[in-house]
Amino acid sequence: MITVLGVGNILLSDEGLGVRAVEEFKKRYKYPEEVKVLDGGTLGIDLMYFIEGSEKLLIVDAVLGGKKPGTFYRIESENVKKYFKNKVSMHELGIQEVLALLELMGKPVKEIVILGLEPKSLEVSTSLTPEIEEKIPLLVEEIANQLRKWGVKLEERNGKR
């Protein structure tokens, strides 16, 4: 099973970009039932119940890399653990704990990829900043590209492939 997980707090402007991108992906694409596409919000440790049993995990999130707002990030392999060591918000700590628990239980996720954008604002707002809003289609395409790389057949909802 493959899980696509959008995380972030939609009440803190660009912090919610992962959730917004996953919502947009679900509107645009049809995907097989062995792919779960979820809004993980800020669930933290409760995400274990949704991730358990996944062989591959695609996390979509705001990434604080210190670059220009809207910069695209792709983090994979050994860099995923490094990424989580540097995170401080609640949902990232929860995911780190979930992945460690699954490993302890003998049910590790075999492959994890993180896709994200550098946020511009983490202020209280339910809207993305214009700089991030315009990059959501890019993020949606990167989600689709990663799933295709994993062998998933996608179909655009408007009939295109």
Tell me the strand order in the biggest sheet.
Answer: 3-1-4-6-5
- The sequence of SSEs as H and E is EHEEHEEHHEHHE
| Number of alpha- plus pi-helical segments | 6
- What oligomeric state do these chains adopt? single chain
Number of strands: 7
Strand content: 15-25%
* Average predicted confidence as pLDDT: 87
Report how far the terminal alpha carbons are from each other: 22 Å
Note the main sheet. Answer: 5 strands, mixed
Q: Portion of residues in helices?
A: 25-40%
Can you tell me the residue ranges where pLDDT is under 50 for at least 5 consecutive residues? none
Q: Give the radius of gyration.
A: 15 Å
* Mass-distribution shape: globular
Overall SS class: alpha/beta
At a glance:
Helices cover 35% and strands 22% of the residues. The chain is an alpha/beta fold and 161 residues long. A 5-stranded mixed β-sheet has the order 3-1-4-6-5. A two-stranded antiparallel sheet has the order 2-7.
Verbal overview:
The chain is of the alpha/beta class. Helix content is 35%, strand content 22%. The chain has helices at 17-28, 48-51, 79-85, 90-104, 130-133, 136-149, and strands at residues 2-7, 29-30, 35-41, 56-62, 72-76, 111-117, 155-156. Helix 1 (17-28) crosses helix 6.
